[in-house]
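thread from #wetlab-drylab

HS: before we spend reagent money on co-crystallization trials with manganese (II) ion, can we at least see a predicted complex? here's what I'd submit
DV: go for it
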Amino acid sequence: MSKTHTYEFCFGPWNISEGQDPYGPPVRPPQEFDWKLGQLKKLGFDAMMFHDDDVVPDIDSKTSAQIFKEARELKKRLDGEGIAAEMVAPRLWFAPETIDGAYTSNDPRHRQYAVDRSLRCIDIAKIMGTDLIVLWLAREGTYIREAKNARRSVELLVAALDKMLGHDKKVRIAIEPKPNEPMDHAYIPTIGHALALAPLTRDPKRVGALIESAHCTLAGLDPSDEIAFAMAFQKLWSLHLNDQNGLKFDQDKPFGSTNLRVAFNQVRVLEQNKYGSNGEYVCFDVHPFRTTKVEHWMAHLDNSRRTFLRLVEKARSYDEKTAQQLIANRDYQALDQLVIEHLLGK
Ligand code: XUL
Ligand code: MN
């Protein structure tokens, strides 16, 4: 395992959240984008991830010319700060046209809206200097099974991917699976589902995946296995590290907050497979707790990176030789304790 491999870090403007939840108002005041960019710089992160309307607010009310002008202006500001745009994702879950889904909506006009907005998102990404589009398929699923035809929905997803791949010959699409929330059941719940879509498209090598730790936990899966699976296909193009305490709403807790051993295994598998060697970023899709005071607003991001880097040290100092002997002797009892005591610092 290389001891010199280094990582580059990233987060999105939504990760500095105001703390609103479905049962109460914001608890921290809204901040301008420039303030958020300043915080990212201050923390020493390398890149920012964007939704299309993080780049161009109120995007649906603006002309293409206005959208591209604003994107170019933002790109200039990012260049001035030495910050890269990691990816751009079409936010297909707030508009009235996406109430019943986007690419899989039963209304053809709404499906058209989703595709048009996705193509514009690709144009924005190009201006922002990234070829990576992330698709979190938020509302591509159902509340009740009978509402949509599941097989047709897969075909609609493939048709939408084909339009995106055809729109720009360089663009790469990373699908971010999540099994539920806001839907009861999503059509693309796991990394296996995401990667199985690729060969159905016109250019399979440009369809890959993004893994979020919490989304794997929500699917009842181990995030490190999901990471390894995607990396076996050379398809892990981005990563949202965070944590999740069991099967409930998507918590986006700081990395390692709930289960340090699960976090350790994610870092270990990233190390083993040299994640980042093709320029992929480690992104933290984490949120401050609702209770977080304004003066502690950025701690969840700084802490996630600290925990990550400490776990890199732990992965590099893990006693592989003893582990291999225990594995050869099928002494998994001792192997279990080896890991626990390593994490405890003994
Ligand atoms: C939703 C989620 C999103 C995506 C970006 O659960 O993780 O923030 O990462 O659209
Ligand atoms: Mn995410």
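DV: The chain has a mean pLDDT of 97.
HS: ok that's useful, forwarding to the group
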